[in-house]
Thioredoxin domain-containing protein
Amino acid sequence: MKQEGKIILFISLLTIAIMGLAVFFLDRNQSQTAPDQSLLETTESPQLGQAEAAVTVVEFADFQCPYCASQYPSLKSFLGSQPEVRLVFRHYPLPQHQNAVPAALAAQAAKNQGKFWEMADLLFTRQNDWAELASTTEIFENYAQELGLNLEQFRQDRDGSDTLNQIYADKAAGNQLQVNATPTFFINGQLAKNIGNDLFEEITKALPEN
C-alpha cells in the first residue's frame, strides 16, 4: 500500500506540474499574440490611411536607422496601392543614434502643424545629410521652412516637454512589447515576421479577401 501511495502521489504531482506548465505557455502565447492595444497606438499616434481600414500596421521606427530609411519609400508606395491598409507610426529612437531623438522631435513638431509625414519624407530621404551632424538644429529648421511651417511654433513645439514625453512614451510602449530593433512591425496586433517585400506579402495575407 505504501508503494501504491507513493505512485499515486507521484502521478498527482506530475499532473499538477504539467497543468502548471500548460497554463504558463498558454498565458505566454496569449500575451505574444494579443498585446494590449493601447501599447500599439494612441490617439496621438501619426496615422496614414483610412481609420476604418481592415488592416492596421504599426511601425516602431528610428529616423536615423538606415534600414527604416531604406524600407520607407517602398512601404509608402505599397500603402498607396492598398486602401484597406492603415499605417501607425511609433517612435523608437535607438541609443546608438545620436540624432534620432532630435529627428523625432522635429517630426512631432511638424505633426502639430499637420505635416508629420512630409517631415518624415525629408528625414528619411535625406538621412545622410544630417545623421552625423554635431547639431541638427539648423538643418531641421530649414526642413520646417521648406515645408512652409511656422518656424516659431515649430521651435516651441520641438523644445516643449510634451513633445519629448510623447517620444519616450512611444519607446516605453515598444519596450513593453519587447521591441529591441528597428524597424519593427505589428500587423493587426501580431508581431510581423518579415521586413522588405516579404513584409508586404505578410500584410496582403491579412486582408479580408485573403
